[in-house]
Write a structure and sequence with these properties.
single chain, 3-stranded antiparallel sheet, 6-stranded antiparallel sheet, mainly beta
């Protein structure tokens, strides 16, 4: 099981080629670090019909898979620039391939038709996960299309938490995704 800390998403590949993009939050209170449901870096977001960011998975119910295309949040919890911007804009990794270490995951979860994270190369999807008693929108194992998992694929495992100091390393980006 992972733990959420100050830095929850650490790129291990060069991020200069990745296009980051700012979008306003649909719920600006999520930028407040004192909010019990505040966003943390490494959480997964999607866009609503107003092009505003919302959590990718139904955060109220742990174990709920994301039904839409998702992007990872790149701004740490409580950043003053996010709180100060009109509309509380925050950045996501929008375009380009990257590899990163994340603490926002549940390797044991088998959400929907998914499977526990057990192997390098395994697909990943986004779901609501409980970490330290708080629910986040994080990574879980994808069961594969042959296994009937139709949830969107967001990346692939490149290093298991047991071999990476408790962090899940994954590869993601526009080249892998539909």
């Amino acid at each position: 099981m992972s733990t959420v800390g100050r830095i929850n998403l650490e790129p291990v590949s060069d991020i200069l080629s990745i296009q980051r993009r700012d979008f306003p939050l649909a719920d600006p209170t999520l930028a407040n670090p004192d909010n019990a449901n505040a966003l943390v870096d490494g959480e997964w977001m999607t866009l609503d019909n107003n092009s505003q960011l919302i959590r990718a998975a139904a955060i109220a119910m742990a174990g709920t898979a994301a039904a839409l295309r998702s992007w990872v949040l790149f701004a740490q919890r409580g950043r003053y620039d996010v709180q100060a911007m009109a509309g509380h804009k925050t950045d996501i990794l929008w375009l380009g391939d990257y590899e990163a270490d994340s603490t926002v995951f549940d390797a044991a979860a088998a959400v929907g038709m998914g499977a526990a994270v057990t192997a390098v190369g395994q697909g990943l999807k986004v779901a609501s996960v409980t970490i330290g008693g708080t629910v986040f929108s994080g990574l879980v194992g994808h069961g594969g299309t042959a296994g009937g998992d139709t949830d969107p694929l967001v990346g692939y495992v490149t290093r298991l938490p047991a071999n990476n100091g408790g962090r899940l390393r994954y590869r993601s980006g526009s080249a892998i995704l539909p």
